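Please check the following.

. . .
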Amino acid sequence: MTNSESMPRTAVPAGIVDPVASARAELKAALAAIEVKGNLPRRLEKASTRAAAKARVFADRNPIGAIAAAVGVAAAVGGAVWAIARVISR
């Protein structure tokens, strides 16, 4: 693995002497950072994948707790839907 492969895309490599190359590297890193920050669907996908993995681990370690959590979430969502429907119907 080379140094450029181990660095994140949003980092500027150290040791660039040429001002033009340095400016290009900074621009490339800034654009990559904007892409990472602004790509909401990709960020949501990664977050949901992490949450699903954590939920699986939790369910494997504590199945009763996972069932209780699922029932609690279902009750909360149902209550929210009921409350919204009641507000809309008035």
Q: What stands out?
A: The CA atoms of residues 59 and 67 lie 8 Å apart. The chain has a mean pLDDT of 87. The chain has two domains: 3-38, 41-89.
